[in-house]
What does this fold into?
Amino acid sequence: MSTPVMQDLAHAHIPEGHRLYVIGDIHGRADLLQRLLVRIKTDISERTGVETIYVFLGDYIDRGPASKEVIQTLVTLSEQEHVVCLRGNHEAFLLEFLTRPVLLQHWSRYGALPTLMSYGLRPPIQPGTEECAAIASSLQEAMPQAHLDFMRKLPVSMTFGEFFFVHAGIRPHVALNEQNDEDLLWIREEFLLHRSPFEKVIVHGHTPVLEPEVLPNRINIDTGAYATGRLTCLVVEANGIRFIDN
It folds into this structure.
């Protein structure tokens, strides 16, 4: 666990009286999420006097073993705190699979099996077309309505102060209000290699890194939780940023 260290982005601010706790890609690691939430609660109790907002950057499911538990944790937290959960490409996959079951083989390459198993399903290794349809139907029945509602209502981005929060990134040279969802959920190289300023500092996940990346135009907080055991939280305050991990 790292000790939070304040870092300054002189050109980027949020309104006074607010603090954001921004959490990267969870990917079914409910254990890491629970530990991180405990650390965030401690941080909040030690630094009172501001409105706190939790921001999650998507990819709550797949790859890790406890996607159902992650979603339930986020649903419960949203009932108790000010929480904004954004959509990741993996949530988009699940939703599309429910209406187009033939996508299962493609989704499986992105870690679908642990998600299906977390909801009590035991799909065959190479399901046929009819089996895919049956699995989609079974998944929809197995998922609590609150989980389905949660998935379907996820926004793809959030703006707060001089920061823009999104799962994957943005298309360079395109205004923030003109970005398309495909880029916001999937983009990599064109965004990651861009070094000029954007309209706002982009805070994102999607591309795993060993340590959080803080660049003048973007901040990447996907530290590969499902593989590394490290789930990172970026704390954004009026006077700078710092990090908490589990």
Summary: Residues 28 and 65 are 5 Å apart (CA to CA). The chain has a mean pLDDT of 94. The chain is about 35% helix and 20% strand. The domain at 18-88+153-245 is CATH 3.60.21.10 (Purple Acid Phosphatase; chain A, domain 2).
